[in-house]
Each structure stands twice: as structure tokens, then as C-alpha cells.
């Protein structure tokens, strides 16, 4: 079997794996939602490409898009890929034990990632831009070189994303790499805004050579280098994880007892389970640390800078400081427990006690952004009523909405395998609930502010959030009863997705 035949076979296997997924119907819904979102995105990108092309014609710099790519567009592309692109290491695990050349399998998935439809979605921006600058008098050969350079840079960015995401799964310190690289490009944008003459001379020189043939060759060389580095990295980490290789000698670990939780009975036991799962399982631990890190960054950014000082922007970010952890963690509730769900089903109402423990744990997490915001509240940047309203809205309405996923989630999440982990992408129902949880509270507060006053809006949110929070024993029990009605269907799904 040659490489081309292997490439076709693995693409066919991926399509079959999608159709055989226990959540196939929900995945179809997700694809429909993503197609709608892609349609809206295409419209915006066509408009942006036309606008950028007009700016390039007015300034007499046809390679203007090659300045926007590293300073603005590649950063957006990098962040968007976390929602739409898996690393090859996540996909090759089933093939590592088959009699296939492993490096060729890795190469095949790398090429598949280059051929992904998301990469070519950027043509909806580049083609209108190219057409506009061609109509503005730019030579066809120059237009072609600019277009090829843009596409190659997007493909190179896709490989950089694969490399960074794989390394981040090993250590969160690797976030420093994209922050430094993209941060240096963004700094150039601020220097341009400051009318720095030396920088402007350098920028003019860059724009003059960006349309040259050798610049396109440099872009191609960058893509090839990233492909080679990715080939080695993806193979090494995927093989290491599958074979359970470890360079660190096993060491005895002290066992935390959390004896102070014993006073809460069985609920305290499940709180211990929640804490020990975070401490002992690297996949869960990495997800928690990333979510908490995001909370800290967002809270400090909004509380101690004037970047977002508009009324609606303060509302927007204040809500997300409290809600982001729950949205990222609870959307896949019961997924980690799918690894040992059979044991939880042994005793009556075990699951109910587990749900209560999860609820109390996530309510306690809300203290993190509250404590970080206290100085800003004292200084008067955040009204205490607004902060209290969004905190109670998160512990009440938001958690009520997200805990409903315990009834319908039936895909097991891995506890250890981070790089080759499966089921890491939201299905259709999860995506719909996630969007509802993110957007509906803000839509409600915007409508209340429009109809009444800001103070009235916050009082309404506070009362609604408090009502959901105080009634949590009743809606958690309702969720438990509905889970028991779907017990065997969910068990089958958890078993099939392990």
C-alpha cells in the first residue's frame, strides 16, 4: 500500500468513525449549526476582503494584507482553531498498534489537516481582496504571488497551532510561545499607530518586498519547517502516551484525606472524589487549570484596565468572569464519571449525591473571580449589585441550564490521555446549550436595561438567580429522576465511547 492509498483509506476511516459515533445524530446537528455560522462568517469575510482591498488601493500598497495577517488575522485564526481542529495525535491512537508505518500515518493526518475545509474558508477573504487590488491596477503576477503567500501563511499557522496545542497538553507553560510570537506582531501594530518614523520606514520596506517571489518562497520554507517539526512532535508524543512511556521514575505520593469534608456525609465523600479527580488525573487537571487561568486573566483584565469600560462591555465581561468555568467544565458533566459509571449505579441515589457535590464545588469556584474583583468593587469600578446579580445568576440559572446535560451526556471522557483523548469536541446538543448559556443572560439584561433602568435589571437578575440557587435541591432531584429513566441508554453510550 503506497502513501496515496493509505491517505484515502484513513480519510474513509475518519468518515466512518464519525457515522459510528454514539452521538452521530447530535454531531449532525452540530454540523448544521457550524454550517450556518460558516455562512455568516463568509459574508463578513467577503466584506472585510473588499474593505481591505480598497484600503490597499488608496494607500498604494497591494501587499497590505500581508501586514494585516501577522498583526491581526493570524491571531484570530489561531484562537478559532481551538473550536474546529483536532491535533493528529488525537486521531492516530487507533492506528498505532496496526501493521502500518506509523510515521506515514502521522504524515497522512498532517496532510489531512492541511486539506481541511477551514483553511480554505480564508479564500473568501483573500479572493475579494485580490480582485479589488487587481482592479486597482496591480499586475496579475503580483496579485497571484500575494494570494499564494496568504494561503501558505494560513497553512503554516495551522501547523503552528497543531504544534502549540500538543505542547500545551504537556505543560501550560508552552502558552508563552504563542503569546510572545503573536505579541511581538501586535506590538508592531501599536508602533505603527504611534507614527514611529523608524518603524514606518521598516514597514514600507517590508510592504515593498512582500509581493516579491522570494517572499513567497520564504513562506513555503516556513510551512515545510513547521510540517517537519510537527511530524516529529506528533509521532513522539502520541507514541509515548499510547505506550505509557515515562521518563520520570514513579514516586510515592502523599494521599490527601480532606477530613474536613467528612462532616457532610456522602456528599462530602463525592466532594473528595471531585477534588482527587482533579489532583490525580492529568486530563481533568489540565482542563481545570486552563479554565481557572482564563478566569484570572479575564478578571484582572476587566477589573484593573480601562480596555472595556463601556456599559454593555462591563456587563459582558463581568458575567463571563463568573460563568466561563461552569460553561467549560459542566458542558461535559458526567463525561469523566463515564469511566466508572457502573460503580456509581450500585446504590440508590448515589448519582444524586454526586450531582449535589458537583454543584457545591462549582458554586465554591465562583469565589475566585469574586475575590479578584473585590478591590475593583471597593474602588467603585463595579457596582456591588451588578457583581452579586451575575454571581447568583451563574450559581442559579446558568448552572440549572448546564446541569441538564447530565441527563443527555453519554460519552466518556479520558482521565489520563490528553494528547490522544477523544470526545473532546462538543456535539450538537452541547453546542446549542453552550450558546444558550453564553448568550441568553446577556440578551435578558440588555432587554431589561432597555425597558427599565440598569438598577432594575440587576435586581431582576439577582432575584431570578437567587430563586434558582435556593431551589437547587428540587431541580437536581428532577435531573436525577430523568437520568434514571435514561439509565440503560446512557450506560450503553458510556461503554461504547470508552
Supply the number of helical segments. 23
Terminus-to-terminus distance: 30 Å
SS-derived structural category: mainly alpha
Strand count: 0
Q: Which spans have pLDDT < 50 for at least 5 consecutive residues?
A: 245-255
The ordered H/E elements are HHHHHHHHHHHHHHHHHHHHHHH
Helix content: over 70%
Radius of gyration of CA atoms, rounded to a whole number: 25 Å
Describe the protein's architecture and organization.
There is one protein chain. With 498 residues, this protein is an all-alpha fold. Helices cover 77% and strands 0% of the residues. The protein is built from 23 helices and no strands. The chain has helices at residues 3-20, 24-59, 64-84, 88-91, 102-114, 117-121, 123-135, 140-168, 176-193, 197-209, 213-242, 265-280, 282-304, 311-330, 341-344, 350-365, 367-379, 384-403, 405-408, 428-451, 454-470, 472-485, 487-496. Helix 18 runs antiparallel to helix 20 and helix 20 crosses helix 21 (454-470). It is globular and about 75 Å long. It starts with a helix and ends with a helix. Mean pLDDT is 78; it is low at 245-255.
Amino acid at each position: 500500500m503506497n502513501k496515496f492509498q493509505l491517505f484515502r483509506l484513513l480519510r474513509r476511516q475518519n468518515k466512518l468513525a464519525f457515522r459510528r459515533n454514539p452521538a452521530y445524530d447530535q454531531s449532525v446537528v452540530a454540523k448544521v449549526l457550524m454550517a450556518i455560522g460558516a455562512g455568516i462568517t463568509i459574508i463578513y469575510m467577503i466584506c472585510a476582503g473588499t474593505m481591505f482591498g480598497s484600503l490597499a488601493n488608496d494607500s498604494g500598497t497591494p501587499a497590505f494584507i500581508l501586514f494585516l495577517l501577522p498583526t491581526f488575522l493570524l491571531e484570530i485564526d489561531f484562537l478559532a482553531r481551538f473550536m474546529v481542529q483536532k491535533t493528529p495525535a488525537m486521531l492516530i491512537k487507533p492506528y498505532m498498534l496496526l501493521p502500518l508505518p506509523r510515521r506515514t500515518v502521522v504524515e497522512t493526518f498532517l496532510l489531512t489537516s492541511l486539506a481541511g475545509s477551514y483553511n480554505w474558508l480564508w479564500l473568501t477573504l483573500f479572493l475579494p481582496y485580490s480582485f479589488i487590488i487587481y482592479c486597482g491596477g496591480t499586475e496579475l503576477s503580483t496579485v497571484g504571488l500575494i494570494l499564494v503567500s496568504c494561503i501558505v501563511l494560513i497553512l503554516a499557522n495551522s501547523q503552528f497551532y497543531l504544534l502549540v496545542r500538543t505542547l500545551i497538553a504537556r505543560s501550560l507553560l508552552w502558552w508563552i510561545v504563542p503569546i510572545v510570537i503573536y505579541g511581538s506582531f501586535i506590538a508592531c501594530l501599536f508602533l505603527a499607530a504611534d507614527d514611529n518614523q523608524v518603524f514606518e520606514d521598516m514597514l514600507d520596506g517590508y510592504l515593498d518586498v512582500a509581493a516579491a517571489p522570494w517572499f513567497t518562497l520564504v513562506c513555503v520554507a516556513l510551512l515545510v519547517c513547521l510540517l517537519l517539526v510537527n511530524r516529529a512532535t506528533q509521532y513522539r508524543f502520541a507514541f509515548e502516551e499510547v505506550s505509557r512511556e515515562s521518563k520520570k521514575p514513579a514516586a510515592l505520593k502523599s494521599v490527601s484525606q480532606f477530613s474536613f469534608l467528612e462532616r457532610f456525609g456522602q456528599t462530602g465523600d463525592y466532594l473528595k472524589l471531585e477534588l482527587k479527580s482533579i489532583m490525580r488525573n492529568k486530563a481533568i487537571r489540565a482542563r481545570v487549570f486552563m479554565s481557572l487561568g482564563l478566569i484570572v486573566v479575564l478578571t484582572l483584565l476587566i477589573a484593573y484596565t480601562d480596555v472595556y469600560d463601556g456599559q454593555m462591555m462591563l456587563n459582558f465581561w463581568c458575567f463571563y468572569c463568573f460563568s466561563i468555568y461552569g460553561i467549560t467544565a459542566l458542558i461535559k458533566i458526567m463525561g469523566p464519571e463515564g469511566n466508572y459509571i457502573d460503580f456509581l449505579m450500585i446504590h440508590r441515589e448515589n448519582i444524586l449525591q454526586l450531582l449535589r457535590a458537583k454543584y457545591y464545588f462549582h458554586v465554591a469556584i465562583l469565589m475566585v473571580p469574586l475575590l479578584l474583583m473585590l478591590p475593583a468593587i471597593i474602588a467603585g469600578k463595579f457596582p456591588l449589585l451588578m457583581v452579586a446579580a451575575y454571581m447568583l445568576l451563574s450559581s442559579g440559572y446558568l448552572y440549572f441550564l448546564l446541569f441538564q446535560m447530565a441527563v443527555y451526556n453519554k460519552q466518556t471522557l479520558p482521565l489520563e490521555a490528553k494528547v490522544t483523548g477523544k470526545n473532546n469536541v462538543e456535539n450538537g446538543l452541547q453546542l446549542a446549550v453552550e450558546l444558550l448559556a453564553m448568550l441568553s443572560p446577556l440578551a435578558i439584561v440588555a432587554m431589561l436595561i432597555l425597558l427599565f433602568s440598569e438598577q432594575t435589571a440587576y435586581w431582576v437578575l439577582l432575584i431570578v438567580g437567587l430563586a434558582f440557587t435556593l431551589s437547587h435541591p428540587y431541580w437536581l432531584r428532577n435531573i436525577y429522576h430523568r437520568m434514571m429513566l435514561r439509565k440503560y441508554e446512557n450506560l450503553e453510550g458510556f461503554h461504547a465511547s470508552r
